[in-house]
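Per reviewer request, we include the raw input and output of the structure prediction for the construct analysed in the revised manuscript.
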Amino acid sequence: MPEAANSVISEVNARFSEKSWLDFVVVSLQDSKLKIKASSDFCYYHECEIEFSGVRYIHGPAAWGSNLSDGLIRLSPENEVNNLINLYKLEPPCHAFIFDTDESFKVTIVAESIQVNFDTVYYYARENLGVNERIAEGVILSPP
């Protein structure tokens, strides 16, 4: 199981390695699923959706920025995960996903698994969408 989580983390970190910062917003938490979105410009679009399943614990704000110089997301070592499991009586198996923020604190999400979607989601009507591009729900499109 850590291999799958590490693979997703590596993919996310590699995808945004050329950017200097990225902002995050919690979109929803429902039925132990947490969805966050990430963008370098939330005025116009977001370029990543990360979904955590089997969420057991969350510590951090609902929105944060990250300086990407040291990577975006990482897994906590197993001994730290075990400490969280014991401290908060969490149900294993789970992983602790850590986001280091630009405010020198950490966002911790303890969950069973992680998935990522790299679609670019626009917040305005736009024609000629490319592969992996879509318009956000709720955007009013012009009549044909």
